[in-house]
Amino acid sequence: MGATVEQALEQLKSTGVRMTPQRHAILSFLMNSMTHPTADEIYKSLSPAFPSMSVATIYNNLRLFVDAGFVRELTYGDDSSRFDADLSEHYHAICRSCGTIVDFDYPPLTEVETEASRQTGFKVEGHRMEVYGQCAECSRPNS
Ligand code: ZN
Ligand code: MN
Description:
Elements: H1 5-14, H2 21-32, H3 39-46, H4 55-68, E1 72-74, E2 82-84, E3 91-95, E4 101-104, H5 111-120, E5 130-133
Parallel strand pairs: 3-5
Antiparallel strand pairs: 1-2, 3-4
The structure holds zinc ion and manganese (II) ion (MN).
GO cellular component, one term: cytoplasm
Pfam family, one: FUR
Protein name: Peroxide operon regulator
């Protein structure tokens, strides 16, 4: 798992980024969330506590966190980006019906990099894979 919220905020502070309660709330929300939220979802969850915060503030902060390397931006298809504060190596299963993203892991897949390198002569730096289908909820009969 990645850094704690406090470690991340300390690191941001050392690069001269000013700490605000909103910034803290957005980063905490992302780090405690397993749902890979969109900017809109973050906005809806936090706006009761921060009524004066705009969606633009959310976007600006997400951009800052992505650039600082604390958060990964997930762009799948043409839906709005989702954000993931779990920086560990993992894959995503994506529901075509409701958009839910669920984490999974499959370490043997790193062999694909060795094989790709062998076949192409590339110095491979990484790979990306997604699985698409219906989530457990959406594929349940009579749901
Ligand atoms: Zn679903
Ligand atoms: Mn994830």
